[in-house]
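Weekly structure sync, notes
Attendees: PL, DS, HV (note-taker this week)

Item 1: tRNA 2-selenouridine(34) synthase MnmH
DS walked through the input record. Source organism listed as Paraburkholderia pallida. Sequence as pasted into the shared doc:
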Amino acid sequence: MYRFEDYDLIIDARCEREFAEDHIPGAINLPVVNNDEYAEVGTLHRTDKMRAYLIGVSYSLKNISRHLDTVIASRSRRDKILVYCFRGGKRSRLWFDALDTVGYKVDRLPGGWKGYRRWVNEQLESRPRQFSYVVLSGPTGCGKTRLLEQLAIEGAQVLDLEAIASHRGSIIGAIPGVPQPTQKYFDSLLLQRLSAFSPSRPVWVEAESKKIGNVQLPPALLETMHSSGTVLRVDAPMAERVRLWREDYAHFETDPDSLVERLTHLRSLVGGKEIDQWRELAASRKIPELFERLMVAHYDPSYARSTKRGYQSLSDAPFIALKALQPESLNQVARNLINRFD
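Item 1 (cont.): predicted structure, written out as tokens:
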């Protein structure tokens, strides 16, 4: 069991490319060797190990010296520091020696990132099963995510999977200018969030499919949500749903044609006439009518089919009617739900 919260600073000694793929949440990247240096040393290592080590150590000492001057010098001497590399080998050892010599309290992560990644996978097979879930189910745009936000403000344990995935969970759910995390880093962020919860209280979550954009949810989480989650059916008036879409998908207001083009592969599901109607509404810039038509013709029936498959008791689930989706309206709803189900 790792206790990363015990450290004031976590240093990832790997190169930038490795850090970008995955790292311990909250760690900072202070590479012993950068991407190019790592590749150079690795290539040379195949033919001349001693020279590779010589060049690698030379690069490392220069880089660590720079990091000490620009980052570490401003840290308190009382800080407790954790350092890790890929396997807990030479790169973290070089950092450890430097920090230990200066006088910091420093630990190396046993097994490095590789051991950490193995632990994450193990935890995601068991940790999600420790909790009970209250699952918000309902058509797109009905305010499930905004209700989760208000539940969190009121003190509920909220697992906002779309926030962790940086994606709104549909074909058009990519957030402009915000890249999704890699699968491995999504796993790290998800485990970090789950680790903050107490099994004595329910976890509130939105019903999701297996994938949110490019990342997949762990099977243990989905299985537990489906088999033992308390499901609530949420809905809101169509006018409110359209208004929410216009806020969340404002980038399509100025370019509705690109929205329709992303959905043309649905022709086999909705038919050519429906696609043509979407194109006409987009061309005439009738945005509210376009959004409503997309919901009625595709999103609502598609969501109903998928949630019915995942949640067998959906038809008997309590119904939560949201009259408006502004925070002040959802605040009281959140309080009532916590009193009833938390």
